[in-house]
Amino acid sequence: MITQDIQEILLSEDQIAERCRELAAQIQADYLARGSIPVVVGLLKGSVPFMAELMKRFTMPVEVAFMKVSSYQGTKSVGDVRIDMDMDLSTVDRDVLLVEDIVDTGRTLKAVKQMFRNKGAQGVQVVALLDKPDRRVVDIEADYVGFEVPNEFVVGFGLDYNQRYRNLPYIGILKPEVYEQGE
Ligand SMILES: O=P(O)(O)OC[C@H]1O[C@H](OP(=O)(O)OP(=O)(O)O)[C@H](O)[C@@H]1O
Ligand code: HPA
Ligand SMILES: [Mg+2]
């Protein structure tokens, strides 16, 4: 079972759910204060559980879209961000709320934010469930962060290692021997 590959549970289902409630309340208050209806954009695939947990807590009107970009293979960053699947609605002159599972080196976020600005979005805000600041190589921060995590490879609640472990309901540290074997 995949649970045998987890060294330690960092964030439980309950902790994640509670933090998502707090984040949703804070984000909603900020958009309502600005009188703005955001396009909430989930970055596939990692954001799916977080997006679901967050969006069901909004009572304000929002529009929802998904897109897929890729910047990783295994645990190593490969630099460039590629668009694998684009959105089905326009974000021109709209406020975009980007939903990310993790900000690690920051390369994905920086490139995606720039892309939305180039395409004419009015504003781009970011909510990330996890922030791993020790790994940052570009100067970028999410506007809303669920939890700061240590410099360990984490999986679960959407986060994968080679496409596995996304289905775990919590966030755990992957045993290093799992990815050391795979390299
Ligand atoms: O800050 P960075 O170093 O750029 O890394 C973070 C990004 O990498 C992962 O995506 P991945 O490309 O693995 O896609 P996935 O969501 O389908 O797993 C993660 O979901 C973030 O989008
Ligand atoms: O720690 C991580 N886990 C899974 N995917 C990731 N992408 C960047 N960092 C991570
Ligand atoms: Mg991934």
Report on the structure:
This protein is an alpha/beta fold. The protein has a domain at 14-69 and 79-149: Rossmann fold (3-Layer(aba) Sandwich), CATH 3.40.50.2020. The chain contains four helices and nine strands. The strands form two sheets. A six-stranded mixed beta sheet has the order 4-3-2-5-6-7, sandwiched between helices. Strands 1-9-8 form a three-stranded antiparallel beta sheet. Helix 1 crosses helix 2. The chain is globular and about 50 Å long. Mean pLDDT is 93; it is low at 73-79. Bound molecules: 1-O-pyrophosphono-5-O-phosphono-alpha-D-ribofuranose, hypoxanthine and magnesium ion. Residues 43-46, 70-72, 77, 100-109, 160 line the site of 1-O-pyrophosphono-5-O-phosphono-alpha-D-ribofuranose (PRP). Hypoxanthine is lined by residues 72, 102, 104, 153-155, 159-160. It catalyses: GMP + diphosphate = guanine + 5-phospho-alpha-D-ribose 1-diphosphate; IMP + diphosphate = hypoxanthine + 5-phospho-alpha-D-ribose 1-diphosphate.
